[in-house]
Specification:
23 strands, homodimer, 30% strand, Rossmann fold, 2 domains
C-alpha cells in the first residue's frame, strides 16, 4: 500500500486517559482508535494485524478438527436461566439490553449456552460425537475498570472453542490435543518461550483445576509462580500446600512472576449439556451425558500483548508473521528515486511481498521515524546516492542493523 | 469435508414461529440456527456462504480503493448527540445498554458518527483526502417485527462504506464509482439481472434522492416501479409527478414490482463532518467542509435473498461462487466403493476443489435428498455399478441434468 493513500497517519496525540503502553503505541502508529475506555476500533493496519492473528488461531483450530461457526451477540434470557447465569447477582459483568416490547436480552459475554443449545439440534446418537466447534467473535463484558488498553476490553475479539465428548477418557484426549494447539499458536506469535501453562481455579462446578496460559510481562494483572524445569506455573489464587502436593510442585522450585492471561481452558464436565437437556444415546440405546471442555484465546488481547512486549523507545516491533507488511519502503530524492522506488514496489508486490511504500513528500527523518513507530520488520531505502552505487539500504527493525545490499542480495533476504 | 465429521445435520424440525422460506430452508439444511426472531447464528456451512459473500464484497470495495477498518459495537453517547441521533424520539430502533456506573451506551446500529470521529484524527489538509473507508461488521436494530428470516434482522452483517471528498464534483465521481462496484457485486452473486438501481427518499438532510438496490422478489417488502428500457426503478414512496419529471421517467414505461433492498447509497453532503467538527484546509489555507457519501450492502440479507430466490421444492440451489462446496460426493456400496470414493475425494481436494463427501452409512435416497436440500452445485456419485463401467454419475443441482462421465470428462467438468 502507498502511504500517500492510507488514510491514517502517525500521531503524537494520545487521549489523556490512555495510560496503557500497548494502546498508546497502537494509537500513535495509527493502528487503533479509542472509542471509549476498553473499546477500540481497528484502523486498516491494525485490522491487518488482528486478521493475521485470527488466521494463525484459525489454522491451528482447524488442524485439530475444529469446525468454525459464528454465534450471536444478542442472547435470549431462557437458555441462560437454565444454567443459572442470567441473574446479575450470579454473573456480574453482563451488558443487558431490551427489545422494543420490553423483553430483556443479553449482550453476549460468553457462548457456552448458545453453543450447547444449537448442538442440541444435531446430536442424538454416539455417532454424532465427538467434535470441536469454535468461533472467533466479539465478547462484551461490563468491566468496572478498563485501563489496560487491549489487555482488558469491554468489547474484545475472542476465539472460543468447545469440545463435546462421549466419555471422560475421550474428553481428556481432546483437552490435551487442544492444549497442544494452544502452544503452537503462542509459538507462532513469538511469545511461546514466555508463555506458561498455569494451573488455576477450575470454577464453581468442578474440583479440578483449569489451565491458564500466562505470558510473562511486567504489566500482567496476575501473580504466578513458575517452575522453569517443568515449564509450568501455578496461579497465586490456588497456591496452597495441598494443591502444590496434588500437582507435584515444590515451593522451592517456584519463582514469582507477573503474567497476562492470553488463554484459558476449562473442564466443564456435563454442567451445561445436562442443564440444557442435551444428551446422546450410546450403542446400547442408553441416554448418556456429554462431557465438555471449553478453550478461550483473547485474540485482540494477544495483539496488545505483542505490541507491549515487542516494543522499544522508538515504537512497535511486530514479529514477521503478524506484521501488517513485511517491508517499509522509504523513497528519498527526485524523479530518479521515484522511478526506482516505484519499480521496486511493483516488483516486490508481484512477488507477493507485502510492502508499505512511503511515497509521501516528507523529510527522510520523518519517514524513518514512522517506519520505526509502525514496527514494520524490514526497511528498504531508495535514494539518489544509493542508486548511484547500485545499492539498497536494508534495516532490520528488531536489531537496528543496517547494511547496503545489491539488488540480488536484497531479493534473497526478502 | 467429510459429512460424517460435520456436526450439523439436515433436519425436518423448523421452529414453529419461523415463517420465512429463506430461514426455513437454511435451518433445514443445517446452515443457520435461530437464536430468536431476527437473530441467527451461522453453522459451519452457513458461515462458509457468508464468508464467500463477504469475500466478493471485500474484493469489489478494495478494487475501487476502499480501506477496510472495524468499528465498535459499543457506542458512546456524545458523538451521537452532536448529530442529534441519540434521542429515541429521533432514532427509534436503537438498542441501548449501560456501563456498571450507569452511563448509557448505544449498541451500534450504523456507523457514520464513529467513522467521521475517527477520521478527525487523521484529516487536516487537502492532501489527506479523498478516500473510501469501509467495514464488514454486525449492526443491531431494534425492529418491532422480524419475521422475514435473514431479510430483516435485529442483528445482521452489513458492509458499510463511506467516501470523504473535497468537493461536490469529487463526491459525484466517487459516488458513481461506488455504484459501479455495487453492480459488480450483484452480478457476481447471480442477482445482477434482477437487481435495479432504484431512486428513493434521500433522508431528512438533503433534497436529493438516494439510491436503493432492489432485487425483484415476491417476498420483497418494498413496492417499486421498474423502467426496463432504462434499467432503473423508482420506489413507490417518492413516486410523484414532480419527481418523475425530475428523474426523466414516464409513468407509462413503469411496471410495478416487489423488491428486497439489498443495498443503498446516500449523499450525506457535509452533515456529519460539519456536526462532528471535521474539516480540511485547502491549498489556499482555508477551512472547507468534507462532502460524504455512504454505501451499505446487507451481507447476511443477501445470503437470505439468494437462498430464497435460488431454491425449488427440493431445497437450496447455491450459485457456484458462494456455495459452501462445489461438489457433493455420494458414496454408495461396500469396500470397493469406499476405496474409489476416498481416492476421488483426496484427488479433488488436492486440485483445490471444495468437496462435501457423504461418507455416512446412510441410504442412497437420504444422501441424494440431503445433497439437494443443501444445494451444492454438482453431485458426483460413486457406486459399485458405476465402478464396473468405469463411470461417475454427474448431476447438476440447478437443472437436475444427470449424465455418466468417464474420469477424464469428470475432471474436465470440475
Amino acid at each position: 500500500m502507498r502511504l500517500s493513500r492510507l488514510f491514517t497517519r502517525t500521531t503524537k496525540n494520545v487521549p489523556a486517559d490512555e495510560t496503557a503502553r500497548n494502546a498508546q503505541l497502537l494509537i500513535q502508529a495509527g493502528y487503533i482508535h479509542k472509542e471509549m475506555a476498553g473499546v477500540y476500533a481497528y484502523m486498516p493496519l491494525g485490522l491487518k494485524v488482528l486478521e493475521n492473528i485470527k488466521g494463525i488461531v484459525r489454522e491451528e483450530m482447524n488442524n485439530i478438527g475444529g469446525q468454525e461457526v459464528l454465534m450471536t451477540t444478542l442472547q435470549p434470557r431462557d437458555i441462560w436461566e437454565k444454567t443459572d447465569r442470567w441473574d446479575e447477582k450470579k454473573v456480574d459483568n453482563w451488558f443487558k439490553t431490551k427489545l422494543a416490547n420490553g423483553t430483556e436480552l443479553g449482550v453476549g459475554l460468553t457462548h457456552e449456552e448458545p453453543i450447547v443449545d444449537a448442538s442440541g439440534n444435531y446430536v442424538n446418537s454416539y455417532k454424532d460425537l465427538p467434535y470441536y466447534v469454535y468461533q472467533i467473535g466479539n465478547k462484551f463484558r461490563n468491566e468496572l475498570r478498563a485501563k489496560s488498553g487491549l489487555l482488558r476490553g469491554r468489547e474484545f475479539l475472542m476465539k472460543d472453542m468447545y469440545s463435546l465428548a462421549r466419555s471422560q477418557e475421550e474428553h481428556e484426549q481432546m483437552y490435551e490435543k487442544a492444549i497442544e494447539a494452544y502452544h503452537r499458536v503462542y509459538d507462532r506469535l513469538g511469545v511461546g518461550d514466555r508463555t506458561y501453562r498455569t494451573y488455576a481455579d477450575g470454577g464453581i462446578f468442578t474440583t479440578r483445576f483449569s489451565d491458564e496460559f500466562q505470558t510473562l510481562s511486567d504489566v500482567g494483572e496476575d501473580k504466578i509462580f513458575v517452575d522453569e524445569a517443568k515449564q509450568v506455573a501455578i496461579n497465586e489464587e490456588i497456591m496452597t500446600d495441598e494443591n502444590l502436593a496434588k500437582l507435584g510442585l515444590n515451593r522451592d522450585d517456584l519463582v514469582e512472576k507477573r503474567g497476562v492471561e492470553v488463554g484459558n481452558t476449562f473442564h466443564l464436565e456435563s454442567k451445561y449439556t445436562d442443564a440444557l437437556d442435551v444428551y446422546y444415546t450410546n450403542e446400547q440405546g442408553e441416554r448418556r451425558s456429554i462431557i465438555m471442555g471449553c478453550y478461550g484465546i483473547g485474540v485482540s488481547r494477544l495483539m496488545g500483548v505483542v505490541a507491549e512486549l515487542f516494543s522499544d523507545d522508538k515504537g512497535l516491533v511486530w514479529p514477521e508473521e503478524i506484521a501488517p507488511a513485511k517491508v517499509y519502503l522509504v523513497r528519498i530524492g527526485g524523479d530518479e528515486a521515484v522511478r526506482h522506488a516505484d519499480e521496486l514496489y511493483e516488483e516486490l508486490k508481484s512477488k507477493g511481498v507485502e510492502v508499505l511504500y512511503d511515497d509521501r513528500d516528507a523529510r527522510p527523518g520523518e519517514k524513518f521515524a514512522d517506519s520505526e513507530l509502525m514496527g514494520i520488520p524490514y526497511r528498504v531505502t531508495v535514494s539518489d546516492r544509493l542508486i548511484e552505487s547500485e545499492k539498497y539500504e536494508f534495516t532490520t527493525r528488531k536489531t537496528g542493523e543496517t547494511s547496503e545490499l545489491t539488488r540480488s542480495d536484497l531479493f534473497a533476504k526478502l
